[in-house]
Amino acid sequence: xxxxxxxxxxxxxxxxxxxxxxxxxxxxxxxxxxxxxxxxxxxxxxxxxxxxxxxxxxxxxxxxxxxxxxxxxxxxxxxxxxxxxxxxxxxxxxxxxxxxxxxxxxxxxxxxxxxxxxxxxxxxxxxxxxxxxxxxxxxxxxxxxxxxxxxxxxxxxxxxxxxxxxxxxxxxxxxxxxxxxxxxxxxxxxxxxxxxxxxxxxxxxxxxxxxxxxxxxxxxxxxxxxxxxxxxxxxxxxxxxxxxxxxxxxxxxxxxxxxxxxxxxxxxxxxxxxxxxxxxxxx
Length: 283
Fold this sequence. Notes:
Blueprint: H1 2-51, H2 58-81, H3 86-103, H4 105-120, E1 128-131, E2 134-141, E3 145-149, E4 155-159, H5 160-164, E5 168-170, E6 176-185, H6 191-204, E7 215-221, E8 226-235, H7 239-256, H8 276-282
Antiparallel strand pairs: 1-2, 1-5, 2-3, 3-4, 6-8, 7-8
């Protein structure tokens, strides 16, 4: 038995040593890949926590993809150590990836759009946006879809490609928003008095921002009224409460100042049979 083992060692010693060497290298590469993957993931998380350049939703995806990429590179090295033709394997994977890409074209377009949305950040979670005919608050930004909640509490999941292919109106991003309140007064009323009423309302409302400065103006002359306007800016959180309050205050203040808010009127002239001869004589 001992002689058999010795004979086996003498015949296959080079192969056994090479195999053990490759196994040691495999273990080293595996642990090195594991260490590097964790280091890359931690670096991405730590860097973004300090720099704040990327959306919080993008960080877990980037860190996971980067860590898997390190494992894939390590796997290629291990296969190369054992003599596997990695060039052919990479070519095969490329061909398979092309076939899968053609089969999942729409799905991959959603992924590509999701990555662009996460990198360019036209909106983030918590923003109120409008795209197409849809409005809602952004709840989640994923690789395939974005999730929204409408003002009436509806759940909307929209494919990323639809968002990427539409104009996106972000109501939250700038932190402030302009309100335009238009009220009509009678042609017989004083325009200066009407504008003075609006200026007093502006002075009494602390939620309006001083910069840009609020404005009052005559915006149009309609059939039944002269339209004057209050234009002012407010913070996003204050916008709707301020807007609703000012609408109520403008109506009450206009009426207290003795001005009239006219309603559309139309004058009708009724022509009877008795008046027809008179019209003919005049003609």
